[in-house]
Fold each of these.
Amino acid sequence: MRMVDVIQKKRDGDTLSEAEIRYFVNGYTDGSIQDYQASAFLMATYFSGMEPEEQGALTMAMADSGDRIDLSAIEGIKVDKHSTGGVGDTTTLILAPLVAACGVPVAKMSGRGLGHTGGTLDKLEAIDGFHVEITEKEFVRQVNDLKIAVIGQSGNLTPADKKLYALRDVTATVDSIPLIASSIMSKKIAAGADAIVLDVKTGDGAFMKTPEDAEVLAEAMVDIGSEVGRHTIAVISDMSQPLGYAIGNALEVKEAIETLKGQGPDDLTELCLVLGSKMLIAGGKAKDTKEARQQLQRVIDDGSALELFAKFLEAQGGNPEIARNPELLPKASIVREVKSTSTGYISKMEADEIGVAAMLLGAGRATKEDEIDLAVGIVLKKKIGDAVQAGETIAVIHANSEQTQQTEKMLVQHIHVSRHPQKRPELIYKVIDRIAK
Ligand code: URA
Ligand code: CA
């Protein structure tokens, strides 16, 4: 086989065979295919697209390019959840104990990553003593005992995706649906998922800016799931404003604990119930959404989800008291209220800009080397559609430096107030499930 023929075939819009796709992925990973040919291939794919079977083959070839986590020693259907990323997205911290308390095993591999706040791993490290450096054997044992464990990313997972992603970044081929969809799905499959629930965000603060674009990506990932035998359900949800109220690591852990107690923000709670019910259905624990929601509501109401969260913290060295008393979490030294300058209704809360404001306080990393300050962040007091008076608090800054003027300015600038009543955005745009129940 010659790479030039594979490139030409894709350039001309033909459908590649599984063997041709594997030849490319393996050759690029081991260095026998060079950047210039891989770049041409990516650009041809960008323009010609890929059929679902090609995307399935690309996904599996990338999943097979490095280590694959073997979760077969864990009983039950392992359902993984993935979010395409947003601001203040605390859902994993809530969903993991919530669905585990309903009997779905949660065997989560989690990374740090860049962004407005840390990843799930950083957030968990806001809990005194908590660690994710456990062996794969301990990980499997803990999931079988408790139904929940989180392990740090280790080993050589999807090296093909890492290398291709870096190349896409410099060849203007990141925003290709087949390439994004196969990149995300390959990582979930390498991490051992039997079934996958995707939270595809749309809006200002998301990768896909419109619901239509988000739907195209969601459809592609659900199709890949069918191709490779992993039940995949996608939920398209709103990211035109931050999710919940808290943005920041310890602040989000506190919000997660409140949500597990049934006292969380409405939008965050509802999204967790929607995603959680899809996880219970995919995990074979509920036959339909109604039954799933009842189960989730029960483990919130009877305190068992929170109790399991405490046990999970303890099992991984964390202080379980924090689940009962989130006041024990790290606190910022400076707490400053930001006031509205006008009276009316919140019309817009630019999620991406508010996320940047939190990052500049130290809540997130701009580069891999940055240190996170777990205590700092922003707690919003309003959502789009809420009424507001001039002089009323719209947000609270938690900082460890006196220099909060820039943050205040950004918040006032990016939280818009209109004189006219505003419609609240739809939280869930669509659910895509080929095996809908
Ligand atoms: N996120 C990923 O993991 N891969 C992409 O290609 C884009 C976003
Ligand atoms: Ca939040």
Amino acid sequence: MTGLAAGTVLSGLGVGLNAVVAEVFRVAPMQALPAWTKSTRSFDDERDALRGAIGSVGAHLDSLGAKVGSTSAEIFEALKYLLEDEELFEVAEGNLNDGWSAAAAYGMAVNEFAELLGGDPDFDERVKDLQDLSKRVQAEIAGIKVGLELPSEGSFVIVGEDFSPADTAQFTPAVVGVITISGGPTSHTAIICRSRSIAAVVSCAAAVDLVDGDVVLVDPVGDRVVVGGEISSATQAIKFIDTGREPIIPVRSNIGSLDDAKKAAAANANGVGLFRTELLYLSATSQPDVASQSASYAEVLAAAPAGPIVVRTIDAGSDKPVPFLNMPHEENPSLGVRGFRLIREHRSFIEDQLHSIEFARAHTNREVWVMAPMIATAGEAREFAGLARSIGKFKVGIMVETPSIVTQIADLKGQIDFLSVGTNDLSQYLFAADRMNPALGLLLNPWQPALIRTLARIASEAEAAGISSGVCGESASDPAFAVVLAGLGFKSVSASASQVGAVRAALSAVSEADAKRIATGVLAFSTAEEAKAFVLQELALLN
Ligand code: PEP
Ligand code: MG
């Protein structure tokens, strides 16, 4: 039953080019677990809290076991056995004695057990189970609901406020569409949906009225959701004629995992333009050592498409908190200690990371470029370049994501080899518009003239300074926008693997002169709507 009439159009911001029709499934996403802290309460209070949480999680496992058939019920019994392990409880009590809160004490105890069991492939699944139980117990203590409990069969459009990267990792194959009420076009939900070709519309405030069972058309190209809409009425993207030519600039791929690296290779990308290393560690509660990092990077490098591989050092913080970096609560995390700023507190991690990347580079014999995120000053750029060059045989670069560094590109001449523009964050800081705030989606639209003019400045100043420039923000995944980027003088773009084909097609269909003419023309417009309409019209005429 719905309160919305068939044909009702809900506006939002589309992600990707695929449309889908399916039934709505409403979900309440899991909140992040609080950071581990010392307690101000007594040992007894914390121990009671821990016993209580273990009891409640045990009861929940019983109820899950009762719902399923006898074979699966055994799985829940085995989990309960792990949960109630007395040795584990004793280790947690030791941590309570050291003054840790119940959640921290249990989480640490599980990590210690996991480390003992780790390395033995026979215990891999048990370690995963233990970590899952640890999360459940910690969530119970904090009063947080665990897990999305998504359907595993059928086809659904899931509708929720927004989804954390950890939530999106739980999407089952039954998730064919995603609608977020909040969350902007550059949020991580958007990035992950694009990379998995899941039809998505974000910043769709009116979706709050959708209920389970509604059938909706998710129409990303039309920036809308239509209640009861038919797939045949989905808005069509411009289809570029396949000329068989190479694109006018290389189209690399953005990746965050081994799986993405394989998809990028299958999509025929010209190398990798952004490897988001932090995505490997979003749920790691302890710092990975050099050996395990080296192994993960080597796997990814070996699977990546031919061409250079741009690896970004960790960009933890803000919307991508990494637990082991233990950031204290920040009032305004997107303006806080994130990206390269972590060097002050966590230098050893960044050094370890560069050593691991160097190991993987030498081991796989791939061409690796490294870059640091969230660089705000020329001094930071120099510090990173010096460090990276002292550790490995890399080309060295920075991300341009802050307006401050845009004004200092000339100062970087001879210091760095390349720069890559992160338009997601650059828009956020240029427009003073939180990229996670649904009310501000229009300011984060890449067609905003202020962003395009800033990009023009970056490309020309990079050229003058002899620095190779590229764009790896989500804007480069839009085929029409990628033509503008090439015309402005960027030397490469990097798109989500699922968009590499579409971006390649656009950049093969135009000549360098066409792209330049279109990019020059678009600079004259003063609104995002006019700018986009001009480019789409020019491209339609060429096709
Ligand atoms: C960006 O900010 O555009 C970018 C590519 O980095 P991320 O989205 O990972 O912050
Ligand atoms: Mg960024």
